[in-house]
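[step 3/7] fold_predict: job queued, chain A
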Amino acid sequence: MQLTDYIKQFDSGKCLPLVEEFYTLQGEGYHTGRAAYFIRIGGCDVGCAWCDSKLSWNPEIFPPVSVDEIVAHAEVYPGRAIVVTGGEPSLYPLDYLCSVFKRKGFQTFIETSGAYDLSGQWDWICLSPKQQQPPIGGIHLKADELKVIISEPNDIHWAEENSRLVKSSCQLYLQPEWSKFSSIIPWLVDYAMNNPKWKISLQAHKFMHIP
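[step 4/7] structure written:
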């Protein structure tokens, strides 16, 4: 079955194919170190070769879970921020999820490649664009954070191309791809030092050995 056909059953947004949910510290980008409840939704057709959550690509292996149930799980923890990630969460209507979390006093954050129209009400949008399936029009100007994964020197050109499309207040991050960290980080540090509009995002959760 085509991915787009399968996800039509989630049109109400009241259930989602939940891969995993957990309470931890944000490990990347602007909110690094902040306590948050992570919600990983299944389904992705962007297909990054270096993806560390390839299991999430096929939503059919994850039974639909009620958004109300997910909210109830998050409420148990003291943090009042959620991070919706994937997979590619923009495949799904997220208005209902955001409205329920907002009523409960949560801030809503999302991490997306921008490959599809984004629904929902978000306090923070992290755009992580991918060359093989570029973001659709308009998402750049909504982004609060641009986080570009760097796995080889040529990826810098992609990062710069996207940086010209975001609003002036958008935070700009270059993130070394984890499996190539040791070879990438020396020259990436030099690049950021010579181009100070950029900051380096490290996957701090991997250094801390937390989810």
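[step 5/7] annotate
The chain has one domain: 3-208.
The chain has a mean pLDDT of 95.
exit 0
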